[in-house]
């Protein structure tokens, strides 16, 4: 049996969180960034998906871009330009994913039951805490009721992809056997 090492678990989790964040963006791109609607990718106003952009029919700026601008403004003495937000937003997205992954990786080392469900419960918890509660409470989006079910479903699905990816990469980096589906 392997000795629990929360520091190594956190490091593996951070790398896995970055991979999970990347997978979320790719997933959003695959579904067209427009949620699960008929003709989603073809009716979408943008040709590429960006972090936190799960429904391009809404004009609200992704939370990651708002956070990047809020963090940068005191340092540089002004809000970020749109081009700078295009860089800062993904950086904020990946940093948040790394932080969530690090916490998960450390927890997985000391509480193996945290990995039950192949990371799906973890991804679900991140979706609920961040997207459905945290982002609106922080004033980075409107209340969840302001958005159609398709947007919530797409965000939930992308967080399931995040959780699955984080657990898979974490297991790989920590030298655990791959998950079996049968």
Topology:
Elements (H helix, E strand, L loop, with lengths): L5 H25 L9 H4 L19 H14 L5 H29 L9 H18 L11 H26 L8
Helix pairs in contact: 1-4, 1-6, 3-4, 5-6
Which characteristics define this entry?
182 residues; mainly alpha; 64% helix; globular
Description:
The protein has helices spanning 6-30, 40-43, 63-76, 82-110, 120-137, 149-174. The protein is built from six helices and no strands. Helices cover 64% and strands 0% of the residues. The chain starts with 5 loop residues before the first helix and ends in an 8-residue tail after the last helix. The radius of gyration is 17 Å and the shape is globular. The chain is mostly helical and 182 residues long. It has one domain (31-174). Helix 1 crosses helix 4 (82-110), helix 1 (6-30) crosses helix 6 (149-174) and helix 3 (63-76) crosses helix 4 (82-110).
Brief overview:
By secondary structure, this protein is mostly helical. It has 6 helices and no strands.
Low-confidence stretches: 33-58
Our Rg estimate from Cα atoms comes to: 17 Å
Please work out how many helical segments DSSP would assign.
6
Total separate domains: 1
Q: What string, H for helix and E for strand, traces the elements in order?
A: HHHHHH
Question: How confident overall, as mean pLDDT?
Answer: 84
Fraction in helix: 55-70%
Query: Count of DSSP E strands?
Result: 0
Largest sheet: none
Structural class: mainly alpha
Using the alpha-carbon principal axes, give the shape. globular
